[in-house]
Amino acid sequence: MLFHRRLLPLMLILLCSPCAAQDLIGKLQDRMAENPDAVGLMEASAKTFSSVEQSSFNIVNTIDVVAGEQENTQQQVYAVMLGAEGKYQVELVKPTNEFWVRSNGEQTMTYLQPLSQYSVADEAGGVGAFAASRLASMLGNGFGSLVFSMLDSGSTGTVAETLTDSSYIGEEQVGEQTLHHCRYTADKMSWDAWFTAGDSPRLVRLQPDLKEIASKAPAAKQFDNFSFTMTFEVKDYDAESELPAEAFAMTPPEDADQVEDALSPPEPPPHQLLGQKAPMFDTADPAGAPIDLGGLVGKKVIILDFWATWCGPCVAAMPKLDQVADEYADKGVVLYAVNQGESADTVNAFLEGKNLDVSVAMDPEGAAAQKYSIEGLPTSIVIGKDGRVQVVHVGFSPDLDSKLRGELDSLLAGEDLATQTIDAWNEEHPNRKVKTGAKAN
């Protein structure tokens, strides 16, 4: 009954006064028109970024963590330049210049300073292609792809298609700027975005909703006031000034190697002992009988296989090494399986169980492994008759036996495999040259 009492006066006004009704409807329509569509704002903003001939700006990513009385703020700054025909450059300038990606509209070059390597791809696609890249997905705690998608009309359209909810929150006054505040949800992830008002709205701020993530963090159980917030701000937007002449140039960075994929770990340099005189060490067989490795230098090609019974790849490699050593025994090749840190009983039980007749050198304290800078098992060292480390194999590969046969044939024919390997490396990696027995620069 209360509902009808409140509604009746309004109905009487509308029925008895057509002019009043029209005025009221007009005001409602004006109010609705004043509230922009959230998706429309996002798409219009992307068009603003995409339609100008050129622009430059910074994307400032700020992370604030509060845990008890401790407050921590971290910040990364990406310098962005956009040009016509899909040209762009994204560079991390704070805290350090760790990477940049640039495209001239035909090719895309990616450079990672910590790895001192770069790659060139014969493809483009504008900043939207960067937004879809693996590198972008690694930025901003995983939100980099979303942020850079907002700079490209095509990518923004893709984001819009994934939205499950969007809403216009209202206008907000930030300093001298009037901003449109919107909220979006896609795939259980929500974020707020602020756009400039006017005919050409432009994204100025994006903030993911991390409340649920923060509530599940281990620190949330330790501190009553734990919070984790992240914002991305577009600052110093300039669509008027001329960009540097070298912008978007496919100029390789100095002192960097070109590789197929700049994000992949760099190829390790040759082993630091390669080409050096092989260090000798005191050792004995499982029965305790001393082994005189030094007495074999100059007479034999020595294979040292660093291994352990618990190492699966070692177990797979040993029969292959044993077979090759037997084949070349008459040609002056000997094999010693240098066991790491195990007892004689363990070694003997293993050999008996696998029906192997391998000469084992015990290294109970790992002293030999330390001399040879062994970082993983199995590692096989081939020492030439000249007493120098000629070949190093780290890990196991199915074709280990065939590789070893070829290397032994070359060594027995008088070739210097260590020098060949180092020379080949230096030719392929002019910015990471090594000297015989030296680490990469």
What integer value in Å does the Rg equal? Answer: 34 Å
Helical coverage, percent range: 25-40%
Q: Architecture of the largest domain, according to CATH? A: Clam
What's the helix count? 14
- Structural class, please? alpha+beta
Gross morphology: elongated
Count of structural domains: 2
Q: Point out poorly predicted stretches.
A: 1-16, 24-33
Total count of strands? 19
Termini Cα gap: 87 Å
Under CATH, the topology of the largest domain can be stated as: outer membrane lipoprotein receptor (LolB), chain A
Instruction: Look at the structure and give the CATH class of the largest domain.
Output: Mainly Beta
What does the main sheet amount to? 12 strands, mixed
DSSP strand content: 25-35%
Task: Give the strand line-up of the largest sheet.
Answer: 7-8-9-10-11-1-2-3-4-5-6-12
Region (Disordered): 253-281
GO molecular function, one term: oxidoreductase activity
Domain Thioredoxin: 272-413
Keywords: Signal
Describe, in plain words, how this protein is organized in 3D.
The structure is a single chain. The protein is of the alpha+beta class and 441 residues long. It folds into two domains: 38-258, Lipoprotein localisation LolA/LolB/LppX (outer membrane lipoprotein receptor (LolB), chain A, Clam), CATH 2.50.20; 283-428, 3-Layer(aba) Sandwich (Glutaredoxin), CATH 3.40.30.10. Helix 3 (38-51) packs antiparallel against helix 7 (153-162). The chain contains 14 helices and 19 strands. The protein has helices at residues 2-16, 18-34, 38-51, 126-131, 134-137, 144-149, 153-162, 211-215, 218-222, 312-327, 344-354, 367-371, 400-412, 417-428; strands at 54-67, 70-83, 88-94, 99-103, 108-112, 117-121, 165-174, 177-186, 189-196, 203-208, 227-238, 257-258, 283-284, 290-291, 301-307, 333-340, 360-363, 379-383, 389-394.
